[in-house]
Amino acid sequence: MPEQLEQSASGEISRILDEAIAEVLATMFFADLEPAPCTHSPLEHSWMSSAVSARVRFEGTHFGEAVLTISRPAAEEIASAFLGLDKEETSETDCAQVVLELANILCGSVLSRLWPESKLTLSAPVSDAMERGLEGPGHRCFQMPEGNLAWRLSVEGANR
């Protein structure tokens, strides 16, 4: 696998992202999703204006960050499934916490597939205000029955 992500999320990297994200969502959050065209620009007129986002930084043999953004209806659905609660019992705090956990799990799954021999440390996930856009290498969008999910993996470099 190349040290840096290529300029587009195509080919092998795209396949790895799609498989890792689909597997995590299906096995841990009981959710189905499919790769989809991006529908999040411009930010102020899209589903992202009310989305829940999380960012996880990583460092070690590679360093960078992963950003997960998920539409509010989809976040509510995965939170209730993950917590084993009805949607009506799931609070906004529950949704935010589950999205943080999902970002952490996805980051670990994706990184372990990209660089299985690497030694990486993940930071605690934090809520992200989407200060940066999602476009760029490692960016993928997905459609769920309940809404949208966007993912961006940015690798800033590799340590030798």
Largest sheet: 7 strands, antiparallel
Average pLDDT works out at 84
Count of β-strands: 7
CATH topology-level fold name: Chemotaxis protein chec
CATH class: Alpha Beta
Report on this structure.
It is a single chain. The protein has 3 helices and 7 strands. The chain is of the alpha+beta class. β6 and β7 form a beta hairpin. The longest helix has 23 residues, at 92-114.
Question: Keywords for this structure?
Answer:
3 helices, 160 residues, 34% helix, globular, 7-stranded antiparallel sheet, alpha+beta, Chemotaxis protein chec
Provide a short characterization of the protein structure.
The protein is α+β, with helices and mostly antiparallel strands.
List the helices and strands and how they pair.
Blueprint: H1 11-29, E1 34-35, E2 52-60, E3 62-70, H2 72-83, H3 92-114, E4 120-122, E5 126-127, E6 139-144, E7 147-158
Antiparallel strand pairs: 1-6, 2-3, 2-4, 2-5, 3-7, 6-7
